[in-house]
Structures are given as C-alpha cells and as structure tokens.
# Entry
Amino acid sequence: MNRAIRASFPVALSGVYLNSAVIGPLPSSTVAAVSAQLNDVSTNGSSNFDGWLATKERVRGLVGSMLGGKASDVAFTRNTSDGLCAVAAGLDWKPGDNIVSFVSEFPANYYPWRTVRERSGVELRLCRDVNGRIDIEELCSMIDGRTRLVAVSAVQYSSGFRLDLARIGEIVRSRDALFAVDIIQAFGAMKFDLPSQFVDIAAGGSYKWLCAPEGCGIFYINERARERVSPSSSSWMSVENPWDFRDREQDPCSDARAWETGMSGTAMLCGLEASLRLLDECGLDAIAKYLSDLTDFLCEIVPTDRYDVVSSRAASEKSQIVCLRPLNGRTADEIVCALKREQITVSSRCGLLRVSPHFFNTFDDIETLVEALP
# Structure
C-alpha cells in the first residue's frame, strides 16, 4: 500500500512473506500494544482492571462495525472452531433435518456438522468440488424446507474461491434456514456487510488476515440466530450483570455476550485492537483492491509452462489467495522447501502451491517469487 505500512511489518525486512493465509504477521504497533498491557499488569497488578474491560468493549464495537453489524452481535471466543461448535451444539436438531455445506471445506467447518449427523440423524449435504470452484446453483439446489443450516467459508482455504454470500444468503433466508459463514480466510482482506448478505452467523479468528495475536476468536450471531441457537454452556460472564456476585438467578445476556463464559485475554485483545485500527485506517475496500491487483499481477507473470493457475480469476470469484499447480514434476511441498531456502515463504495445500500476499507486500515481492520458482 505504502512504505509506512511496509515498514511497520518487520517480517517484510527479512525476506518475502507471502503466507498470510496461514499466519498474518504482526505489525510493530500490535506488538507494542500487547507488551504495554503486559507491562501494565507487571507494574500495577489489577489497578487498571476497568481499562481492560473498556478495551474489550472498544474491540467489540470495532469488529461489529467492520462486519457491517452491531457490537451486540459480537462475542469473543478462543478461535473459529469455538463459534462453529457452539452452533452445532446449540441448535435443536431433529431427525430429517439437513445441513448444506461444501465437500472441500476446511475441517473446522466440517467436523461439527459431522458430529451432528452422527448424533442426531441429520443429513449432511456436501456440494461437490468442480476444479476448485463451488457451483452456486448446485449448492443452492440442495437447500430445501428441511434445511436448518447452510455452512460455508467466505473464501476457500484450498483454492482461494470467493463465494457470493448475498446470492446464497438470499436463498437461505427464503427457506427460513440459518446462514453460517467461516470468515477467517477473508476478514481483514475484504469488506463485509453481513446484514445485507443475509449472514446470520460468522466465525473467525484473529491471527490470519487481521494480523493480530492468536487466541481471539470472533463469533458474530445476529438476533435472528440468537432466537434459534441456545448457548451450549454458561458461566459468570454470560449473564446480564456478571459483577453482581450475589445474584445467582440472573438471566443470560440477551445479546451475543451470552456465548462468553469467562475472562478474555486482555493482552491479546489490545493487540487485536491495534491491528483492527491499522486495517480500518487503510480501509478494507482499498486493501481488497490492492490485493486484487497484486494477485492479478502474479497470475499474469507466472510461467504457464510450469504452473497452472487453479484459483478462479473471475471478478466475482477471485480472492487474495492464489493456488498454483506445479507442472514441472516437482511437488508443492518440494517447491515450498526450495523457496524457503531463498527466504520466500508460501505454503502447500492439497498438492497446490498457495500464495497469499497481504497489504504490506509489493509488486517487487511478487516478481521475486516468480523469478525464484523452479
């Protein structure tokens, strides 16, 4: 995006890092925010406890705003899986119900639904993989009057395929089902407006495109979903007034906080706040446009005699993840290791070379990668 942003990411100074789909590196401001909170505890103990609680509510508001929703729709968990498992455990499943998903979803967005299938006699309908793409028409044709939930990822981890959430969400809503979206491979790299996309539930984590510390799970659950999904566990922080220790008969929170059971990691939330503010200042629309330009450039210059671009580059389907199939007889794992020796970091997924630049990367980084490809 600009030199100041790049300079704030130390990882950019030690090589070419094109692996934010695995771990988004931390900017210096985020590390400083985490360190400051830990130093505060070391020096002052609990003296600034009220400030820690205020940080959590500021972050809740930031997340809600950046998703196009409200703070009251946001809860903090440990990770993406916590949110999806909460949905699986919290719906009143009946034999004959069905869940619609995609056959190549990341395992975090499969195992909860498999468990429901095994325990409750629910049918799990998985849309097939078509050369790394989801046929939206085929997926939507699986949704019927017994569908309780449609669960997909906004961006597929193994192909970079981006779904048209609004198109799917409209069909889901017309069938009176719930629409749950795994956003971990998208939030921080593109803009969301979950209400207009008819998304009822979203689960994500802090450590990929948000460039924040691990341990901050994001769980978005709107009022419509809260009427159908019950919290699968409860504790002192999930009631309306957790600081009234004497009242043991309190009702659960009426908003998403009902899914929070205890204290959060304040240092991690301080880091998340710093990262969110950096992303928000840059603008998610501007970041998405920049990443589109970077990945388009990669696809234009990659040697097509040695690599096949698997990821869809259609305007409505492309994302910030590009997957390449080696055609030169070498495996993706071998190529990842060879590039690592040149201080270039990418990853291997499902036999493909996965390249995932973020807003601190440059066109020079892309050229360096392509020049080093065996």
Summary: Residues 3-18+283-372 form a domain with the Aspartate Aminotransferase, domain 1 fold (CATH 3.90.1150.10). The chain has two domains: 3-18+283-372, 31-280.
